[in-house]
Amino acid sequence: MGYVNGLKCRECGREYPVDPIYVCEFCFGPLEAVYDYKKIKRALTRKTIEKREKNLWRYKELLPIDGEPQVGLKSGFTPLIKADNLAKELGVRELFIKDDTVAHPTLSFKDRVVAVALTKAREFGFDTVACASTGNLAHSVSAHGAKAGFKRFVFIPATLEPSKIVASLVYEPNLIAVDGNYDEVNRLCSEIANKYNWAFVNINIRPFYAEGSKTQGFEIIEQLGWKAPDNVVVPCASGSLLTKVWKAFKEFKQIGIVKELGTKVFAAQATGCSPISAAIQQGTDVIRPVKPNTIAKSLAIGNPADGFYAIQVVKETGGVGEDVSDEEIIGGIKMLARTEGVFAETAGGVTLACTKKLIEAGKIDRDETTVMCITGNGLKTQEALNGHTASPHHIKPNLASFEEILKKIGYNE
Amino acid sequence: MGVKVRIPTPLQRLTQGREEVEGKPGTIVELVADLDKRFPGLGERISEGGKIRRFVNIYVNEEDIRFLKAEETAVKDGDEISIVPAIAGGCSS
């Protein structure tokens, strides 16, 4: 029933069976799932998709499972919002928000990759799942894993936003807070993954896990009326999401679901951790690892595993990389909330602030259709806004006290 | 003094189980060619067409050669070279 032929090394092309493995034994490159697109083309059409339930599994033939979906049955198919107020403010004709701030169940796009990873972990027969996380992944694995009945170990940097830590703890996984940054957590988890027979969703299950991000791309095309946008702006941590959104667009073209594809893909990062956009801007293929220093903690990966591939996608599609300061990030969060009523986490602020910069620099054409991938909910990173928002007006419970405020703010009926 | 070269676990079966071997001073590309002569098959695991593979990191005294002179980085007596698969943990054996 599955359409995956096997795994393949992205560097040297060596082939492997469908196993919980992630590194090429020969050249140490990353492994990727390989599909039988001929078979998929016959099975997956616009009509088939449209008949299915509105969740990420409506594209299941392009996802790396053998049987039926088992986890995240309500995940995905988040709103694509036409952002007319924001478009007007930025001076562009047409702008859309792919709104994963309301992803089910944990309000970030990680619910997509975890739904796929845990379904695959179940197919492989694992009883324990784990992850190294900058926050959203821990939250999603804790939640999806609880519903699916897995034992769970989630590893995070100890300095993560408190609200993200509480959000993961409520599902009662084993939460391991490591004194280190994400890159150090990841390195430790690789050692643990080698030793214990657990399904680490972003390590030994990574080739399957990563495919879940494609669903954000499939949905964008479907929700635009089976068209790809002219531009898509994607925030980059490891760079994986950006490569998979593009892969999704290409797969839809390959199996004939869209006829034309000319999307430019743009990488958005925080200046305090921008190894990918820096490399793109400098015209190099070599990622220079950095020590992250930004409020955008969900993007704080100093040594991005998919950095090289993200650079290739951006170059290949005619996009560029951009990065923004912490101040601009907060401005982005507030602008999105003020214009479109969407409260995004810091990564969303990064994406909007970068989109604004790209428009002003003429890199995004004002007459074209642009989609911004907004990947997580602002309630998860409220701390970042402390001291940066407006304040409430405090009054006594009487009309006079209130009308003093009206006067103060210059309200005219 | 010589040049110390640390071999990662997955490649130790090519060096008769040794995790540390002697290296030849010169450029990295020369060092790798020399290692391959003494330990056949090692060269193609970490390099292709004279370039170090993308997911193999080589450190000279803890500095990634990508930020030195890449394959032309000079190695002298007393230097310590580490060969480390980029995807931390690599594969078992």
CATH topology of the domain at 80-106 and 212-385 in chain A: Rossmann fold
**Main sheet makeup of chain B:** 5 strands, mixed
The portion of residues forming beta strands of chain A comes to 15-25%
**What is the count of β-strands of chain A?**
13
Rough shape of chain A? Answer: globular
How many discrete domains of chain B? 1
* CATH architecture designation of chain B: Roll
What's the helix-strand series of chain B? EEEHHEEEEEE
**Gap between N and C termini of chain A:** 65 Å
CATH fold assignment of chain B: Ubiquitin-like (UB roll)
Beta-strand residue fraction of chain B: 25-35%
N-to-C SSE string of chain A, H for helix and E for strand: EEEHHEHEHEHEHEHEHHEHEHHEHHEH
What does the main sheet of chain A amount to? 6 strands, mixed
Name the helicity range of chain A: 25-40%
* Mean pLDDT figure of chain A: 96
Features:
heterodimer, A: 413 residues, alpha/beta, Rossmann fold, 6-stranded mixed sheet, 4-stranded parallel sheet, 15 helices, B: 93 residues, alpha+beta, Ubiquitin-like (UB roll), 5-stranded mixed sheet, two-stranded antiparallel ribbon, 9 strands
List the helices and strands and how they pair.
The complex is a heterodimer of chains A (413) and B (93).
Chain A: E1 4-9, E2 15-16, E3 31-35, H1 37-43, H2 46-51, E4 80-82, H3 84-90, E5 94-99, H4 110-124, E6 128-132, H5 136-148, E7 151-157, H6 162-169, E8 174-178, H7 182-195, E9 199-200, H8 206-209, H9 214-223, E10 231-235, H10 240-254, E11 264-270, H11 275-282, H12 307-317, E12 321-324, H13 326-340, H14 346-360, E13 369-374, H15 399-408
Parallel strand pairs in A: 5-13, 6-7, 6-9, 7-8, 10-11, 10-13, 11-12
Antiparallel strand pairs in A: 1-2, 1-3, 4-5
Helix pairs in contact in A: 3-13, 4-5, 5-6, 9-10, 10-12, 11-12, 13-14
Chain B: E1 3-6, E2 20-23, E3 26-27, H1 28-38, H2 42-46, E4 47-48, E5 51-52, E6 56-60, E7 63-64, E8 74-75, E9 80-85
Parallel strand pairs in B: 1-9
Antiparallel strand pairs in B: 1-2, 3-8, 4-5, 6-7, 6-9
